[in-house]
Amino acid sequence: MMDWKEAEELACKFLKKKGYKILERNYRTKYGEIDIVARDGREIVFVEVKSGSGKVDPLERIDLKKVRNLEQTARFYMIQNKLKGPARVDFVRVTPEGIDHFEGIWLG
């Protein structure tokens, strides 16, 4: 089973191949952490990476509280870096079977 660092590295490579520019990794605040901050064209994308193997889908570990913390941390990042414009939260699932990218929650 891969560890979270390996999963995040694979997710970064995957996103770069899709044309994303990685801006930051493991951004932390008192609200929470964002695994990857990237740019997709004009949009800032905050990426949560989940990995695992077995019967439980890694995405099942994302609950409403986690989503709210991600949104709050993302908003803080935008303010701290004086960024305006569209932003969203995406999820990347990394399993032994492959990588899935879910473009997700729009922040505005």
Please tell me about this protein's structure.
- This protein has one domain (4-106): Trna Endonuclease, Chain: A, domain 1, CATH 3.40.1350.10.
- It has a five-stranded mixed β-sheet with strand order 1-2-3-4-5, sandwiched between helices.
- The protein has helices spanning 4-17, 64-80, and strands at residues 21-28, 33-40, 43-51, 87-95, 98-106.
- The longest helix is centred in the middle third of the chain and has 17 residues, at 64-80.
- The mean pLDDT is 86.
- The protein has 108 residues and is α+β, with helices and mostly antiparallel strands.
Write the layout of secondary structure elements.
Blueprint: H1 4-17, E1 21-28, E2 33-40, E3 43-51, H2 64-80, E4 87-95, E5 98-106
Parallel strand pairs: 3-4
Antiparallel strand pairs: 1-2, 2-3, 4-5
Give, in order, the helices and strands. HEEEHEE
Question: How many domains in all?
Answer: 1
Percent in helix? 25-40%
Cα gyration radius (Å): 13 Å
- How many beta strands in the DSSP annotation? 5
User: Could you name the CATH class?
Assistant: Alpha Beta
Overall average residue pLDDT: 86
Task: Assign the structural class, choosing from mainly alpha, mainly beta, alpha/beta, alpha+beta, or little secondary structure.
Answer: alpha+beta
* CATH-defined topology: Trna Endonuclease, Chain: A, domain 1
Overall shape: it is: globular
Relative strand content? 35-45%
Strand order of the biggest β-sheet: 1-2-3-4-5
Low-confidence spans: none
Largest sheet descriptor: 5 strands, mixed
Which CATH architecture is right? 3-Layer(aba) Sandwich
